[in-house]
Design the sequence.
C-alpha cells in the first residue's frame, strides 16, 4: 500500500509541476523580456551616470501591475530596491528586496533566484526629476526582470533536497530521546513493572488487542505510548511506540506483513488523541488570541471522534482482508456491507450538520477550558520526571542492575533511530515534492464541491489536507491562516482544532512500520485515513456548534 501511495505522491507532484510550468511558459505568465512601468524614489540625491549603488523605493501603480501580470492586487506596490547606475548605459541594474508583503507572483519569481529574497533585472530610465542643483532624486522608468522559467520544477528539486535533509535531522534528533526512553523502559521491563501496569488495564487491552498476551512486553509499551500521546509528551511517545512495534513483531508469524494488533495500534496513533494540544495553543497565543486555550475542548472532541472511528475501521477491515489482484472480487463479495457502511456514514453526516446534537455540544462547552488546561499542564510537567523516578526506583528496589540495563536499552534505541532514516527520507521527500509541485493546490480545487457539502470552508481545506501529510507543513498552514483571518475568528479556531485533533498519518506509518521493516501494511492506511476524516468532521461539527459563522 505504501508503495502505491509513495508513487502517487511523486508522480502527482512532478506531473503537476511540469504541466504548470509548460502552461506558464506558453502564456508567458512572468512576462519575460517585457517591461513594466515604474517610478523610483532615491533616498539620497543621485546623478544618473554616477556608477554608484543607491538605496531607493520602487512604486508601481495598481492598474499598471494588474494589467501587466493579469493580477488583482488591491493597492499600489511600494518596495525597497537597490539600483546600480552604469555610466553611459541607459539600462541600469536593479535588485528588489522581496518581502512577505510583496505580490505573490514576485515571491514566486524570487524563490528560484540565486538569493531567494532578491528579484533582479534591468531598468531603463525614461525621465528624471531634477532639483535646482541639477541632481535627481526620482525618475520614471521601465523595468525588465531576468528571465524566469520552470519555477515549479525548480521548487520540486529544492523541496526534494530540503526534505531529505529534514528527514535525517529528525532521525538524528530522535537518537538521544530514543536512547533515554528505551533505556528507561528496559529497566521497567526487567523489574516487571510493565507487566504490572499491563495487568491493571487487561480488561481494555484484551478487547483492543486480543492477539497479544496480557503479560507480553508489547502491551506495556503500547500503554505507555498511548498515555504519553494523551498527555502531549510527543518526545516520549515515539520511543515507546517504536519499542511496541518491535515487540509486536516478535509475535508476528508473517514477517514483513502487519498484524491486526499493529494496525489497531497505529490507528490509535494516527488519531492522535491529546488532552492538550500545546503547539496549537502556543501558536494561537503568539498570534494574539484572547483565548488561546479555547481549542482544548474542541480538539479533544474531534480527536475522540477520530480515535473511535480509527479503532472501529481497523476492527472492521481486519475481518475483510483484501488479497492482491482480488480487489474486484472483494468488492463484489462485500457489496452489501459497503452499501450499509455508506448509508450509515451519510446518516451520521446528515445528523451532524442538521443541528442534531446541539444540546450535547453546548453541554460540552460548559466545562472550563482554563481549569482543564491547568490540570493537564500540571500532569504533563511532572510526568517525565515522575516516570524516570518511578521506573528507575522500582528497578533499584527489585535489585536490578539499573545502569547496565539502561545502557542495553539505550543501544537498542540508537539502532532503531538510525534504522528509520531511509523510510523517513522516502516519505518526506515524496510529500515535499507533492506540495512543491502544486498537487496540493490541485487537490484542494478538485475537492472543493465535497468540502462545501460537509461545511468545511475553503480557507480551512489546505489545513485538513496537510495535517495527515506533514506536521511542520500543517503548522505553517495554520499560522498563515490565523495571520490572515485572526486567531479568534471561526476560521482561526477551526484550523487550530484541525491541527490539534489528529496526527501526521503518513509520518507515523513510515516511521513505525519502517522500524520493523513492514512492507505489507494491510488496512493500516485506510483505517488511519478514516480516523483523519472523522477528526475533520468532528472538528467542523463542534466548532460550528460552539463558534458558528
Sequence:
Amino acid at each position: 500500500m505504501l508503495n502505491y501511495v509513495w508513487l502517487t505522491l511523486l508522480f502527482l507532484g512532478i506531473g503537476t509541476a511540469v504541466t504548470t510550468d509548460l502552461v506558464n511558459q506558453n502564456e508567458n505568465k512572468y512576462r519575460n523580456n517585457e517591461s513594466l512601468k515604474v517610478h523610483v524614489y532615491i533616498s539620497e540625491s543621485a546623478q544618473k551616470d554616477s556608477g554608484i549603488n543607491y538605496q531607493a523605493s520602487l512604486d508601481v501603480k495598481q492598474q499598471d501591475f494588474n494589467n501587466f501580470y493579469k493580477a488583482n492586487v488591491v493597492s499600489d506596490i511600494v518596495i525597497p530596491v537597490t539600483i546600480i547606475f552604469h555610466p553611459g548605459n541607459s539600462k541600469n541594474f536593479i535588485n528588489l528586496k522581496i518581502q512577505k508583503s510583496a505580490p505573490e507572483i514576485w515571491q514566486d519569481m524570487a524563490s528560484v533566484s540565486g538569493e531567494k529574497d532578491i528579484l533582479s533585472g534591468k531598468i531603463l530610465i525614461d525621465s528624471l526629476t531634477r532639483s535646482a542643483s541639477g541632481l535627481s532624486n526620482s525618475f520614471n522608468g521601465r523595468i525588465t526582470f531576468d528571465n524566469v522559467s520552470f519555477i515549479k520544477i525548480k521548487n520540486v528539486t529544492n523541496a526534494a533536497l530540503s526534505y531529505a535533509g529534514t528527514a535525517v535531522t529528525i532521525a538524528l534528533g530522535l537518537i538521544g530521546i530514543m536512547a533515554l526512553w528505551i533505556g528507561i523502559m528496559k529497566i521497567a521491563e526487567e523489574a516487571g513493572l510493565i507487566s504490572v501496569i499491563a495487568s491493571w488495564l487487561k480488561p481494555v487491552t484484551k478487547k483492543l488487542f486480543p492477539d497479544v498476551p496480557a503479560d507480553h512486553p508489547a502491551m506495556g509499551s503500547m500503554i505507555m505510548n498511548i498515555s504519553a500521546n494523551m498527555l502531549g509528551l510527543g518526545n516520549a511517545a515515539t520511543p515507546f511506540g517504536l519499542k511496541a512495534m518491535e515487540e509486536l513483531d516478535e509475535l508476528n508469524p508473517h514477517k514483513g506483513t502487519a498484524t491486526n494488533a499493529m494496525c489497531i495500534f497505529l490507528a490509535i496513533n494516527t488519531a492522535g488523541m491529546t488532552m492538550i494540544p500545546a503547539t496549537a495553543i502556543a501558536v494561537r497565543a503568539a498570534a494574539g488570541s484572547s483565548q488561546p486555550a479555547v481549542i482544548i475542548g474542541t480538539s479533544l472532541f474531534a480527536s475522540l471522534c477520530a480515535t473511535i472511528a480509527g479503532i472501529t475501521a481497523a476492527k472492521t477491515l481486519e475481518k475483510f482482508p483484501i488479497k492482491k489482484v482480488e480487489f474486484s472480487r472483494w468488492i463484489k463479495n462485500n457489496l452489501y456491507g459497503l452499501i450499509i457502511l455508506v448509508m450509515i456514514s451519510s446518516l451520521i453526516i446528515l445528523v451532524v450538520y442538521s443541528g442534531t446534537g446541539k444540546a450535547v455540544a453546548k453541554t460540552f462547552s460548559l466545562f472550563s477550558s482554563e481549569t482543564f488546561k491547568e490540570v493537564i499542564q500540571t500532569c504533563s510537567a511532572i510526568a517525565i520526571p515522575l516516570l524516570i523516578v518511578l521506573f528507575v526506583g522500582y528497578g533499584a528496589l527489585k535489585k536490578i542492575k539499573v545502569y547496565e540495563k539502561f545502557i542495553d536499552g539505550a543501544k537498542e534505541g540508537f539502532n532503531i533511530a538510525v534504522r528509520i532514516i531511509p523510510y523517513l527520507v522516502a516519505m518526506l521527500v515524496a510529500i515535499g515534492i507533492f506540495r512543491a509541485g502544486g498537487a496540493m493546490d490541485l487537490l484542494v480545487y478538485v475537492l472543493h464541491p465535497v468540502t462545501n457539502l460537509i461545511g468545511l470552508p475553503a480557507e480551512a481545506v489546505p489545513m485538513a489536507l496537510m495535517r495527515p501529510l506533514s506536521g511542520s507543513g500543517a503548522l505553517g498552514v495554520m499560522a498563515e491562516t490565523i495571520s490572515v483571518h485572526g486567531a479568534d475568528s471561526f476560521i482561526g479556531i477551526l484550523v487550530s482544532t484541525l491541527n490539534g485533533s489528529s496526527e501526521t498519518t503518513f509520518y507515523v506509518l513510515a516511521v513505525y512500520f519502517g522500524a520493523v521493516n513492514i512492507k505489507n501494511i494491510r488496512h493500516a492506511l485506510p483505517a488511519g485515513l478514516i480516523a483523519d476524516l472523522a477528526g475533520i468532521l468532528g472538528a467542523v461539527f463542534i466548532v460550528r456548534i460552539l463558534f458558528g459563522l
Summary: The mean pLDDT is 81. The first strand starts at residue 36 and ends at 46.
